[in-house]
User: Fold this.
Amino acid sequence: MTDNELTAICARLREIGPSTVGGALDALGIDGLVVPPIRPVAADRKFAGPAFTVNVAVGALGTFAPEEFDIPAYVDNAAPGDVIAIDAGGAMVSMMGGAAATAAKLRGVAGIVVDGGVRDLAEIVDSGMDLFVKHAVPVSGRTRVRTAATQVPITLEKVTVNPGDILVGDSTGVVCIPRARLMDVFTRAEKAEAMDQVIFEHVRSGKGLREAARLAKAV
Assistant:
């Protein structure tokens, strides 16, 4: 698959959204549903793109040297179109703030998912970054967090995410598509989305839901 083809597929998945993709994952027996409480910082945020994974270690204040909290290791190295995914084990400590979110947005990062915390929530919202997070906290990661590794397997809410897996998110939640199953999931999601649109058309025309579903299946 070329970079352009992957970009086009991710753009389409962003519009299809995680609800329909989640149904496709279920139908194919793939465990990829990252359930709440990881939520978007604003209701209109959505993304789809390859995961740039980050694993961090978290301790009490003073555990690590200040320079070990290396936010540029992921903000400056994620490629345009990537989704930065940070496994902080749900810790109530900030992994980034407004300046980092703004830098990621200007770099072209498609989204950020944090199984942990962020600070400067208003600045992050204003940046326009499509960021999903478990906690908004005033607790700095400085000397509490060490950026342990990037581009390694991580876990988001018990779902394993490998570098390059496709993450899709909107206000409903986040799902993870294993890269090796991308085309299987994408094809099934496209068919489901097309059927949903036909059902919507029949419902809007006054048909009952059962009849609308029957007519959609007949198409």
In short: The two ends are 31 Å apart (CA to CA). The chain has a mean pLDDT of 92. The chain is about 35% helix and 25% strand.
